[in-house]
Amino acid sequence: MKVMARLCRNVLNVKCLKYVVMTLTVWTTMMIGFYAKSWGITMMSLLEWEQIESQSALPNTKQKCIHPQLLINDSTMTRHLRTLSPEKCPDELEWVYVENGTVRFTKLAVSRFKGMSCSFIPLYRDGDYNVKWGRPILNIKNGFRIPTDFFRIYCSSVSRTFNGLFAGVAHTEERAERKDLPMDEGFGGLGIAILGFDSMSRMSWLRRLKKTREYFHGELGAIELEEHNVLGDGTTAVMFPMLTGKFEWELPDARRFFPNASTLDDFPFIWNDLKKYGYLTSWCNAENITAPFNWRMLGFKNQPTDFYSRPFFMVAKPYQVYVGRSRKLKMKKYCIGSRTYSQVWLNYFKDIFVSYPNKRKFLLHFLVDMSHDDNNLITMMDLDIRDVVKFLYDNNYLNNTLLILMGDHGARYDKARLTWAGKMEERIPYFSLLFPKWFQKKYPEAMANVRKNSKRLTTPFDLYETFRDFIHFTGTGDGDVSRRGISLFKEIPLERSCEQADIAAHWCACLASKKVNLKEDIYASTALSVAMDTINNLTSQYRDICENLSVFQVKDAIKMETRKDVLRFSNTDSVGGIYNITFKAKNQNLMSLYQLTFSTVPGMALYEVTVVHDILRNHFFLSEKEISRINKYGDTSSCILNKNRQLRQYCYCSKQTSSWGINLF
Predict the structure, then answer these.
(1) E strand map for 486-568
(2) Which of 462, 480, 507 is the last residue of a domain?
(3) pTM of the model
(4) How many domains is the chain partitioned into structurally?
(5) Which of 42, 197, 288, 646 is the most buried (most CB within 10 A)?
């Protein structure tokens, strides 16, 4: 250290100073790791390991898959909990508002601004990555019926001007006159409406959306899927199985920068089938750049659904009004006029019901900003979500609709994710269903199965099969455990396992765990080498811009076991760079699983991987889909974004544009 200090003493050498700071950071981290190890401290506390050991002794029951009993008051999770007050936006910003497809002038504007004149400028979609403004409609009057869902209103008076962006639901001939065709033995054309929130685990929902849950589950009797399990990493790993019944690698390639890739227009989305039976459809994601079907995929050439909010949120940012910041939480709160960003999203959902109360609907509305980076932000929405649900229920809009509230997965990057409970919560998202009372009375056997299944292993594949039953009901009875998707209206067998549900071992929350020492378990040490080789091989063709990574510190090493300590390995395949490992009982090769958590340099990336060990052949396998990056990487991978966006979590750019690219919390 003294030598480095002398080198920089008399010279204002920025490069040298950066090197010194980097060295100090790494040295400090190593010392912390050394003493933590000597004191018996690991990333997981002793209490957490006691929880893991208690879960290893699974109860004597026929049910194969039993999730760990996570605690709502787990101190390793609640220490990160903050409840934030709802944001209020100043009403005086608005000259007009939209109600049931109609523009209304505010009383404040009419009384204050003499000679007020307003123009309506429609917003149109121009593909998935551009918008265009239509010809202005001049001098609109109070009560003007909007011809498009998204628009700008410009007003002027003698002394002031107003320019606002709005979302509403237009009454169009095409929507209103769509015929409701007879359903083929379905459930009488029951609608489906989904409000989804990014990165919301079951336990995080219980901690942060108490008023919503108290009303939806406690008062209205919504059914929660307590054993719901993710199928993979991120939002698309939920959306594709739920909406198409397929994994991403089973669908046509739609990834950016891949040869022969195409848009998602030909994907077999369930909304296309429902639209044929008169359903009004929506995909409304309140995100522009990182939207699930647009960030690393090519999006849609044609508008996929009747209601599609992407054009609005592509232009919304410049119209947001900064109203405050909490430095402690490093959060920004924005308003669009008199409403928050999230209220605009919620009200668009509500307005579809108000504008088309008697039409069959399949609505999927998904919100990212209020929970993806920080689950605490969603506490500001608790009352808003509850109030929208209450409005729809009290006004009988849900009398012909199944309402679903859901998360796609748990938090993937925050500090709580580094704990054992956080790891489990990522794999167990919130999912809750509210059926109309008449439906529950008319179909008692189907509803009895839904209630039984609320405590059985379920996945997004099961939701897809449930949605299919709305078109063609396949009956109740026992579900076929050999099928990876089972409708919730059938009883899911107790003996269903993650393998049968097509859940990769890395994502299965039913596996018992045992801590291992890499120095004592040679197979665990080999698994770590395989993991590093796999990660580096993924970026090998981009070595001119992506660094070769090496292990800095092993945080955790766990050997995972199924209920009977058996996993059967069938095959490894590769489809366009997406790797898939499947397990089938017919193959008698005994497997062990090692789940490793480790950091790498340069860049301090933190990975969690599940390596399969074929004991008889002594082969090790690691699928790309069983690698999780569990800390943020910011712009440290920016060099790969326009070459192969799929590899952003593995690439640490040789040339960094930020402060040395260290992504520590």
Answers:
(1) 512-515, 550-561
(2) 507
(3) 0.81
(4) 2
(5) 197
